[in-house]
Write a structure and sequence with these properties.
The chain is an alpha+beta fold. It has helices at 2-20, 114-124, 134-137, 178-191, 237-246, 259-264, 304-312, 316-323, 346-354, 359-368, 391-404, 416-424, 444-451, 464-473, 479-495, and strands spanning 36-41, 69-71, 78-80, 83-88, 94-99, 140-147, 150-155, 199-205, 209-214, 228-233, 251-252, 268-283, 329-330, 376-382, 407-413, 433-440, 500-511, 515-517, 535-536. Helix 11 (391-404) links the parallel strand 14 (376-382) and strand 15 (407-413).
Amino acid sequence: MKSKLVSVFAGLLMAALAALGTALMPEGAQAASVKRLIFASAGFHEGNRFWTISRPDHLQFEPFLETLVGMDPKTGDYIPALATKWEISPDFKEWTFHLRKGVQFHNGFGEFTSADIKHAHTLLIRPDSTATLVAFWRTVEEIRTPDKHTAIFRFKAPALPTNLYAFARSGDFRISSKAQWDKEGLEGWEKNPAGTGYFQYASRQTGLNIVFKRNDKHWSGHKVDYEELEFRIAREEATRLALLLSGDVQIADLPRELHKDAIARGLKRFQSSLPVDWISIYMGGQYYITGDKDFNPKAPFVNKKVRQALNMAINRKELMNTVFAGRASLAYLSLWVPTSEGWNPKWESRFNELYAYNPDKAKQLLKEAGYGPGQLKFEIWAFTEPGESEGPAIADALAIYFRNVGVNAQVQMQDWSKIRTVYRKKQPPAHNIMWPNIIGWRPSEAGVRNFYFSKGANHHFEDDFIEKTFSEVLKLTDLKQRHELMQKIGDRIQDEFADIPLFWFRNEVFATKAVGSWVYPGPAAGRSSHFELVKIAK
């Protein structure tokens, strides 16, 4: 088995290196003078309608659309940004934000005020909104604006401080100009959106690049070290590495199988300050809430023994070392880390009992589920996104592991937007596919709401127990009671093998020696963030 996996990844690496030859980064790539900093990205769901874009794709908004709350680049702590301070009522239903005065929108659209807060929220809850946190934003009962510099959110149910991440750079509440919308409408926004960020939107060529210009009048007084920022889309991994080595770009995200070679060729690795992503495999068609018309009892993943078998078919340690070069840690449960609300330390020991690699047990479980060799068939849909280039390699590895226990799984490359639409709308062939997904950290309440609750945007695994228990959680303000119920939800997810948890890891990108330093937290939406802090080498 190991030799097959090694062969797969060695083949990918050989193809990439053959395309590059043995060139080291030339001296020209190390030049200190950089007026336009170029970040080569694998690509993302493009568009200026931030309310239709998932959090991982908010990389394109980071430079120019700010948030109420900032994030410390080293600790990830929430810090003032467009809001200078905030208070939460004792019943957790009212959040009051005090807004920074004198902040100006780009393109002369005037001062940022509380009216822009209401406008941003209106966009996020539009009928066409597919924002990651749209379910949370729809729990806002009203927004009061007693003056230009105060905005009070009133929630329908208690919204605990853990939800502060939604207002921060980790969320999707992007501040946009109401004055621009009133004057130019959606057409004007699509053409040249105005924000308040360190950079000003300049141009977009779909499929090619986005360019931003430095905002020398940013409210913070901070001056960015370079004049322009470009996100250049280069979907091929070898192309991104070649662009780095030639000095045509200064920063790029690379798949981990190329990291060792990138370092050997003189490139610098920058790592997020905090673990930021987990990768799990999600299985479609798990709609177990009583009366759900989309439930299909013949779908391959509705049998619990099948789900456990697929988990036990995977050699996670080998997969971590081959695809992630050992730079990851096991995820004992999707979504949760030891600091999360509801974390249960027993999940680790139970994981070894229930999920650890055991192909013989996997075969036995499949037999008990009624599947002989070759009878269980489904597709694995893979995609790439910025910072998520490992998806296809993971999918290929899964197909090998599953074949080893008698499962016929075919890998299909798809656009992320298609995968998301299929599972969010429960469209065919959602019941017959699984997909590796790299997901950014979020509080456990937000994750359960998003992935395991019928009112969330996604439908990864839903049943009556989680639905009822989470509905109770949303009514509680007693932290101990909340913790206990969230733990029961986690127990349920683990007991039911709701998905296939794999790893946690930090975001990593590579740069030429033209980049002197860069510190970013990782949990910000888009993962690579705080481009205003990139320092050019002197």
